[in-house]
């Protein structure tokens, strides 16, 4: 039977104990350690390399610095980060968590039935690091302009997006995409080369199949966070690297922009 090692990162010691107690009812889960703040949690993940991380993102103690930016920090050190299971008291961060590609989102105190669903999802996804490591094929998302969409189950390599239309296959490296712009029922894809490609899918569709670093900031735009060179909060505008393009962000998605700002600050960062 596959064992999933895990650590718990939470600023509330009682919550850590409750989560661990619930998890102890599953023979598939193996507890490694716990931490109460960002730095301790990062060190534990680097040391133990667990399969799962139970992460609190709305701490009572703000000095713990626990938030979704913890996930961004993990990407600096791992090609494949552990499965992140958010454990918190509120539902209002669920959308933001999805943007970061978390595996699950559980409300505290973690109930046995909710964790059971998570464990079953793990088994269904065939989450096995050793097996995944031998997969050499580069996965892709196929945006079929004629029929339907094929989404990979296990993305281990840099993502390729295929724009398919009547036998014409156009392959794009996701990391080369600066932003997506809605155009009625189609979407214009802008690359770092300045080239634009049209896919006959809605922006909402791309928002649903893509995860971090692609973040929606406006009804008409999904942006690649890695191509943002400047954010002007007063004018509600994001600037694109090596481009004169100015992309507006709306009040509806302001929280996503604030998360981007926090994400930059959590990295190797100097503010002057």
Automatic annotation (TrEMBL):
SMART domains found in the cross-reference section: LytTR, REC
InterPro entries xref list: CheY-like_superfamily, LytR-like, LytTR_DNA-bd_dom, Sig_transdc_resp-reg_receiver
Superkingdom of source: Bacteria
UniProt keyword terms in alphabetical order: DNA-binding
Annotated ranges, domain Response regulatory: 5-123
Keyword Cell cycle belongs to the record: no
Domain HTH LytTR-type: 161-263
Molecular function per GO: DNA binding
Pfam families: LytTR (PF04397), Response_reg (PF00072)
Protein name in UniProt: LytTR family transcriptional regulator DNA-binding domain-containing protein
Source lineage: Bacteria, Pseudomonadati, Bacteroidota, Flavobacteriia, Flavobacteriales
